[in-house]
Amino acid sequence: MQDLTLELTQESILVLLRKGVVDLTEFRIGELATRSGVSIDAVRYYERLKLLPRAGRTAGGFRVFGPESVERVQFIKQAQELGLTLDEIKGLLATGGAEECRSVRDLLSQKIGELDGKMTAMKHFRRTLARHLSACERELETHGDSACCPVVAGGKSKPPQGKSGKK
Questions:
Q1: Beta partners for residue 63, in sequence order
Q2: Same domain for 25 and 80?
Q3: Number of domain units in the chain
Q4: Tens of pLDDT along 11-32?
Q5: How far is residue 143 from each of residues 72, 83, 148, 159, measured CA to CA in Å?
Q6: How far apart are CA 153 and CA 146, in angstroms?
Q7: Which residues of the chain have pLDDT under 50?
């Protein structure tokens, strides 16, 4: 048997693993939920839907997940926030051949198109809000305390002073 000499520094960590002891790179369900920013019930639900690989178990029957599970749960959460359904996410997470790859490509292309449409609509809405803001600022600047809000009045406010009424 070979002797080992360990240098003692603040960065040194010595971990002795015995059979039946959980590795430090594995997390129980509560730790996975905390690190991923979801509830324990969400982790169980993702596992039931097979969005997460089936967890290993400790000798005591507790679920244990690897660090890759944190990344996967965070991906699921982000994909949901961007509007993907759990079924669509499941399709993205599936591993397979060319046919699955084509399906994933088509889904991603569709989602990008939907996002582009939403972004265009949001830009238009932002411009509308900016016009309303400008109208409010002009009305307040022109009429002060006697201003009539053009947004609330539905555009029926007094015409701006000092400008010709011609269009």
A1: 57
A2: yes
A3: 2
A4: 444 444 444 444 457 889 999 9
A5: 57, 44, 8, 11
A6: 14
A7: 10-23, 157, 162-167
